[in-house]
Amino acid sequence: MDQTRSVTVEHDCRNTSPLQANLLTTSSLGDAPISHSTSGQYVAPTGQDVEGDSLDDTYLTFDEFAQNVLATTSARQLPQLNTSYAWSQLGYTTPSVVEQHSPFPSSIDVLNSPNTTVPPVFQINRITERSVDLFFKHTYPIYPVIEESSIRSILSGSREPTLAESCLLWSICALTLVTVDSWPAMTVESRSVTARKYVRQCLDTRMANNFIESASIEDVLASLFIAVTYFDLKCRKTSWFHLKEAITLGHFVGITCAGQNSLLDSMQKIIYQRVYALLYITERGACIHDKFPVSILEPPDLPYVALPGEERTVSPSLSGLFQLFSLLDMSFIQAWTESSLSPNTATKLEELQQHLRRPISVEGMSDIQRANILVTQQWLRLMVWQTALRLGLVSSTTVNPTFSYTYPVEIATSLCEILKTLAPISIQVHGLGIFEKQFEIAYSLLDALTLSTVSLPGDHHETLRSLLLSLSASPTSREIYVHILQKKIGQSSGKTVDQKYVHLADVQLLREDRNSRQNTRRSSAMYQGGLEQ
Q1: Which segments carry the region annotation Disordered (predicted)?
Q2: CA distances in angstroms from 525 to 129, 175, 199, listed in the order given
């Protein structure tokens, strides 16, 4: 009959994992189970049960116990716990009980599904073809980072797209559907729904595949275009999420050090650097729009070089916009987001205004390129002024016009002069962001006209009317921004603002023609089912 002797283990349950506690109480050493003494001491087997190890009746720490006792039996199999009681109630249930308790169908291999799911095939139809045509006609000057010949080879059937290229094409479709108003047979509602379908197709495909570990520049662009699409769909937080996703993927791809990457050819280096610059611009813009934090702290390098076969004005246009946002360094971002006034803040804001008031050369550029630069310039002037206003630097007695209450009037007047030289489509293709810039200028103009205690020179009736009409060029802008301004104008009745401005609250040109809208809905049938073709 085996003899046993007690081995006391110094053990603090608070520092022991459930697994360690289970080993101490339920494991066996050889054929002799560990038992408990009435004093709470563990009783260890002796003699052959510890394979000749001689242990004195001494107190052991847990580490010593594990090293001298448990380790000697590591090769032995621990007894199987009897857990049949836990599943006894399932023994007589239906065979599909796992399916009933799982959120996934039994046919899905949860562990391997990202690698085994068959990716959907990119389908070419009238919507995808028109989306690509509209992108390279109107949107490429804004995002000059895609090689047209590569995309055209996919649409022509010359080659099959990669998974990343399929997602990029779906994001292009979504982007053009919500930003370019050149879909005569589709209503605004149907375009938004279709755009969401393309975004969903892209996201579902990504979820079914390990796109993060094998990210490419196409994945970065797809996330950026999805972010812009969601911004136009009025999903600001979702837009910000995908913008940060694009920035993160960009770091994985190596856009931050593309200039020193010997594995990239000269054309790839230019594209990578342009993508980085666009992410910088977009993130800075989102920071100003919604006070989101920035992660790209310093402006990246942007070469002043054209791609093969590219119009000569594309690179100067992107560089001009990039230089505007490069003025918004971290000291300004801090003043804008935190409203913190440092000793040199006033000087810094005054210098910014001086830079932003200087004329920008846009000679030879298209209307789309000019609109992007010039409207942004006026908007940034207003943002710097609003920063000064929040910091208490604006005064009615200042001799510096950039710190006066009437400065928004000067900005709005400059903007209207710019809008007179631009076709509506050249503004519209930039999406909702450029309309929000105009809206903020118009709103500040109304405040200046309403609250000013001095007589403002000039007739600003046409200035305000021009801004309202420009904002009406986009159905989404008309629905959001024009209605807000009209309501504000209507509420200004009886205040210092002249009554003639109040009449602009009912400008007939700002309203959609119902018959035209109904005809558009009837003709949209030809495009229905485009995604399924």
Answers
A1: 513-533
A2: 18, 21, 22
Asked if residues 289 and 433 have their Cβ atoms less than 8 Å apart, the reply is yes
Dmax (CA) for the chain in angstroms is: 113
Can you tell me the distance from the alpha carbon of 261 to that of 365, in angstroms, rounded to the nearest whole number? 32
Which tens digits make up the pLDDT trace of 401-446?
999 999 999 999 999 999 999 999 999 999 999 999 999 999 999 9
Q: Which residue has the tokens 């989404």?
A: 476
Question: What is the Cα–Cα distance from 284 to 296, expressed in whole angstroms?
Answer: 9
Ordered DSSP codes for 6-49: E--EE--GGG--HHHHHHHHH-EETTEEPEE-TTS-EEEE-GGG
DSSP class of residue 250 equals H
- 364-381, pLDDT tens digit by residue? 999 999 999 999 999 999
Element (H, E) at 4: strand 4-6
CB 110 within 8 A of CB 204: no
Q: Is the Cβ–Cβ distance between 445 and 467 less than 8 Å?
A: yes
Angular region, 178: left φ>0, alpha ψ -120 to 50, beta rest: alpha
Please tell me the chain's helix, strand, coil percentages from 3-state DSSP, rounded to the nearest 5: 60, 5, 35
H-type alpha helices, 403-495: 407-419, 424-428, 432-451, 461-471, 475-477, 483-491
Q: Which residue has the tokens 């289970």?
A: 22
Three-state secondary-structure class, residue 489? helix
Strand (E) or helix (H) holding 60: strand 60-61
CA–CA separation, 270 vs 532, rounded Å? 37
State the burial class of residue 326 (Cβ atoms within 10 Å of its Cβ: 0-12, 13-18, 19+). Answer: middle
H-only helix segments in 161-265: 163-179, 188-207, 217-232, 236-253
**Pair 134, 182: CB distance under 8 Å:** yes
What whole-number distance in Å separates Cα of residue 529 and Cα of residue 297? 45
- The angle at the Cα of 382, spanning 379 to 385, to the nearest 5 degrees, equals 155
> Two tokens at 504?
């602009």
Confidence (pTM): 0.73
Q: Which residues of 237-268 are buried (b: 16+ CB within 10 A; e: fewer)?
A: ebbbebbbbbbebbeebbbbebeeeeebeeee
* More confident position, 122 or 470: 470
Per the model's pLDDT, the better-predicted residue between 521 and 239 turns out to be 239
Q: Please report how the helices 148-155 and 163-179 are oriented relative to each other, as an axis angle in degrees rounded to 10.
A: 100
Would you say 154 and 327 are in contact if contact means Cβ atoms under 8 Å apart? Answer: no
Amino acid (1-letter code) at residue 406:
T
End-to-end CA distance of the chain: 83
Sign of CA dihedral 102, 108, 112, 114: negative
Give 272's contacts (C-beta < 8 A, 6+ positions apart).
217, 253, 254, 255, 258, 261, 264
- In angstroms and rounded to an integer, the radius of gyration of the C-alpha atoms of the chain is 34
Q: How far apart are CA 258 and CA 533, in angstroms?
A: 39
Task: Compute the distance between CA of residue 426 and CA of residue 181 in angstroms, rounded to an integer.
Answer: 11
C-alpha–C-alpha distance, residues 264 and 356, integer Å? 36
